[in-house]
């Protein structure tokens, strides 16, 4: 029997690595994009990840794509997906603007419910959620957050509110109908730990690296507002994808899966992370405290709010994850891997700048 897979958020950091990790186990993969898809580009991105892992080069040929708005049962059949084994909902709309609450809820809550209805996966519907819904945002609290529904969160912005609403609606649907649904809560995602970065992506901590590149070039210091003693959840994308592939394999074998998993680990406090960056770059470029950089006011404002919230005082309880995923696949970030990520990304940024200068000079 043909096994088919549907993945949203195509082309992003997590969805690209996830698709590459899942691709060998599925006969056909449908990527859903926010706009008109560029299928050759999507296949090339997935192919670069697969090449870094020595997987067969022909696998991206199994991938096709559709705009998310065009998804219907008829469109699924036309794409060769008469049935869908698994759905991985990775895409999301990110907004801190309270005026965007309705649009953010529509994107983050209505879409997964529609996906579940239209695709009707026979094995599992995996919903990628966010660490923001897993617990309190107050640094004064040091809770251990279990892999279970959360009823007292700090819903501080449209993104968090919409993600929390989605979890509870999916959880209610699962309890009422028996739909095979699992929620996977991620921390902030870094580039791969097991091989060099193979794709460009400006999301999350990649944006922080862009800022570090600017302050490094100016011999300046970037100040961000993060609690020094807190350890925000982080995950390397290749280890994250391996964990997801392990769960997908269990779902394919008909094993019992839990409704909630936490996929993120961290051995660094904010202060230790700053020390690791400074040591790796050989100078003091990152400092914790009130934000005062003027390099990019829009970035500084949004990142300050996000980092302050993400630096909440909780840690994951991985009991459920550990029972379902091999120990080697568990995402983990330590000082060395964090420093390698930063220096590796800065080297790539410098190489791109040099290439642009050379191209301009040749012109």
Task: Tag the structure with descriptive keywords.
single chain; 363 residues; alpha/beta; Rossmann fold; 2 domains; 7-stranded parallel beta sheet; two-stranded parallel ribbon; globular
Q: What would you say this structure looks like, in words?
A:
Strand 2, helix 2 (39-52) and strand 3 (63-67) form a beta-alpha-beta unit. This protein starts with a strand and ends with a helix. By secondary structure, it is α/β, with parallel strands linked by helices. The longest helix has 28 residues, at 335-362. Helix content is 44%, strand content 15%. It folds into two domains: 4-189 and 233-263, NAD(P)-binding Rossmann-like Domain (Rossmann fold, 3-Layer(aba) Sandwich), CATH 3.40.50.720; 192-231 and 267-312 and 334-358, no CATH class. Helix 4 (101-119) packs parallel to helix 5 and helix 8 (270-281) packs across helix 11.
């Amino acid at each position: 029997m043909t096994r088919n897979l549907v993945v949203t958020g195509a082309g992003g950091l997590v969805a690209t690595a996830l698709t590459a990790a899942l691709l060998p186990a599925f006969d056909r993969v449908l990527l859903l994009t926010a706009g008109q898809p560029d299928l050759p580009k999507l296949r090339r991105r997935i192919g670069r990840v697969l090449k870094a892992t020595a997987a067969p080069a022909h696998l991206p040929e199994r991938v096709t794509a559709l705009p998310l708005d065009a998804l219907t049962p008829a469109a699924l059949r036309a794409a060769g997906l008469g049935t869908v084994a698994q759905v991985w909902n990775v895409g999301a709309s990110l907004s801190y603007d309270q005026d965007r609450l309705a649009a953010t809820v529509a994107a983050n809550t209505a879409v997964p419910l529609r996906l579940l209805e239209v695709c009707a996966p026979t094995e599992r519907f995996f919903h990628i959620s966010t660490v923001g819904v897993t617990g309190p945002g107050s640094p004064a609290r040091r809770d251990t957050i279990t892999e279970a529904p959360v009823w007292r969160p700090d819903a501080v912005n449209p993104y968090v509110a919409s993600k929390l609403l989605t979890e509870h609606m999916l959880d209610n649907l699962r309890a009422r109908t028996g739909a095979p649904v699992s929620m996977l809560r991620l921390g902030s995602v870094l580039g791969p730990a097991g091989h060099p970065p193979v794709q460009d992506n400006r999301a999350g901590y990649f944006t922080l690296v862009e800022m570090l590149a600017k302050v490094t070039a100016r011999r300046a210091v970037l100040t961000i507002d993060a609690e020094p003693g807190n350890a925000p959840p982080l995950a390397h994308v290749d280890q994250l994808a391996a964990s997801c592939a392990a769960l997908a394999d269990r779902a394919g074998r008909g094993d019992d899966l839990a409704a909630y998993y936490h996929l993120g680990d961290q051995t660094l406090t904010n202060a230790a992370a700053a020390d690791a960056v400074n040591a790796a770059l050989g100078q003091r470029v990152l400092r914790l405290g009130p934000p005062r950089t003027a390099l990019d006011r829009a970035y500084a404002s949004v990142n300050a709010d996000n980092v302050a919230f993400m630096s909440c005082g909780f840690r994951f309880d991985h009991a459920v994850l550990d029972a379902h995923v091999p120990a080697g696949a568990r995402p983990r970030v330590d000082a060395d891997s964090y420093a390698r990520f930063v220096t590796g990304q800065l080297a790539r940024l410098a190489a791109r700048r040099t290439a642009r200068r050379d191209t301009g000079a040749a012109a």
